[in-house]
Amino acid sequence: MSKAGLIAARLLQILPTFLLIGVVVFVLARLLPGDPVSAALGDRATDEAVNRLREQMGLDRSILEQFLLFLRSAVQGDFGQSIAFRTPVTTVIAERLPVTLALTGLATLIALALAVPLAFVAAVNANRWPDFLIRGVFQVGLSSPVFYVGLILLTVFAAWFRWFPVGGYGEGFADILWHLLLPSTTLALSFSAVIMRNLRAAILEVLNAEFVDFARAKGLSRRVVMIRHVLRNALISTVTLVGLHAGSLLGGAVITESVFAVPGVGRLMVDSIFARDYPMIQALTLILAVVVSLAFLITDLIQMALDPRVAR
Amino acid sequence: MTALALTFRRAPASLIAGAAVLLVVLVCAVAPGLIAPYDPLAFDYGALLQPPSAAHPFGTDQFGRDILSRTIAAATIDLQIAIFATVGPLVIGTIIGLLVGYYGGIADAIFGRLVDLVVTFPFLVLVIAIVAVLGPGLSNMYIAIGVVGWVFYARLMRGEVQVLRGQDYVSAAKVLGYGEARILLRHILPNAARPILVYWMTDMALAILLGSSLGYLGLGAQPPAAEWGVLIADGKNFFSQAWWITVFPGFAIVFCGIGFSLFGDGLADLMDVRR
């Protein structure tokens, strides 16, 4: 199949995925406790008003019709009114999603900046003390819960040294960066441990490949072989890994945002549970799943571009 | 006896170190009363927010409760989380993976789509959404994790079984006329089990991280239950004056997590499982 055909096929695959995500969220929403009509109108609504809204929301129709209605409004971006905010759910989420994307994006950059050089050092010194030291430190990072790391960074760098704000979100690029630096470092720590472990193994594997022997036999310098041949090939697996971890990164953002009071969708999710804001929970679950499946899509496309073998 | 001694000599250092760490956690979890110097729930108004000292090695909290005793007592719930949140998925996932991998066909195709779907939802977000349906608390948390978690075991098991079902010894067993149940349970399962066991160790470490995170958010274990995440949440408002309330329970989580990781790494080495 040609490359363009593969890309088109991959793009089409996203549609059934979206549909299935819709099914899961719809089922989950049916299982939620409480009646959405009385939640929206309160206890003192008249029977007439209840019936009218029930009809409006399509709750008097068959379950299949209800599902189609749900899909139609989801495609139109209509997830109903938030119970806690009394505005359309979509408005609130549109405000907060960029915050979470900035947080997770910055966290990915920090994780890569930590993991790539250290994985390189560890692999080159495999089974000697720098390797053991790097792996040991990252093992501690991997075993530390995100909220714990966050609290420690918050206390040391925001409360004691006062280098960073204790929470919230800024205005303008530099201010936002300053506010997000501690939370994204927190989020990056365990992620970088995962990347480091994977990249170290990938570099060790590539080091044994025949094309590396060949490059050395050609008389290329060690430096050129390492950077142009070894690291470049090993990084392809890192791209896949970063994409596959989009979900766990968003999950980590839920906790990080709660610790640092960052006004993103993760914190919104936790707040919505305590506020019993079911339309919000429903929409957030759906949108976060869509974000992850888009991340998978982008990963596949990047991989197709980087690795010519994929297209064959 | 010789076999045991041989196994012990062959055991990787990480397996022994991990086992030692887990043994400490296990003893704390089973008999906290024997080790803890104080009653973890006893208030002591004479010793509020005391920093670590000889009398209170981990200090005391705002009610004068001994942090060391509370951290030891919390091992009970956290080890329970590691086991209860993973055993259900382990058993169900293994059975489904075994069947789907062996028989293939339409069930396998459906399972493949299910895996694609489950990995699209951020695990924590899905667990939180299910907790929202069921309500916060430990047993609902186990259900929420179980509803999603079995898929990862089944996926692993399916991959193993698909390789094994083509092996000569399985064909030989078929030729001998053994029933399918016997082939699945006696020939395939024992050989496919090793990667599952190794993954189980990693998963228990993850379960403690997840369980303490939900406890911290108020969606898992509910106070006054002593759980490491809940203890950390308890102390977070005093962090700048009394860091010891949060720092020491966190050490326990890291300690326990490293124990499971070392044990899992050692097990992988011992059983020659590639990860």
UniProtKB/TrEMBL annotation, chain A:
Pfam families: BPD_transp_1, BPD_transp_1_N
Domain ABC transmembrane type-1 as annotated: residue spans: 97-299
A GO-annotated cellular component: plasma membrane
Entry membrane topology: Multi-pass membrane protein
Superkingdom of this protein's organism: Bacteria
Coiled-coil regions, chain positions: none
The entry's keywords: Cell membrane, Membrane, Transmembrane, Transmembrane helix, Transport
Transmembrane segments: 12-32, 101-124, 145-164, 176-195, 230-260, 280-302
Protein name: Peptide ABC transporter permease
Species: Alsobacter metallidurans
UniProtKB/TrEMBL annotation, chain B:
One Pfam assignment: BPD_transp_1
GO BP terms in the entry: peptide transport; protein transport; transmembrane transport
UniProt keyword Protein transport present: yes
Keywords: Cell membrane, Membrane, Peptide transport, Protein transport, Transmembrane, Transmembrane helix, Transport
Cellular component terms per the entry's GO annotation: plasma membrane
InterPro entries recorded: BP-dependent_transpt_permease (IPR050366), MetI-like (IPR000515), MetI-like_sf (IPR035906)
Subcellular location: Cell membrane
Transmembrane segments: 12-35, 81-102, 114-135, 141-157, 196-221, 241-264
Family: Belongs to the binding-protein-dependent transport system permease family.
Name used for this protein in its record: Nickel ABC transporter permease
Native species: Alsobacter metallidurans
Organism taxonomic ancestry: Bacteria, Pseudomonadati, Pseudomonadota, Alphaproteobacteria, Hyphomicrobiales
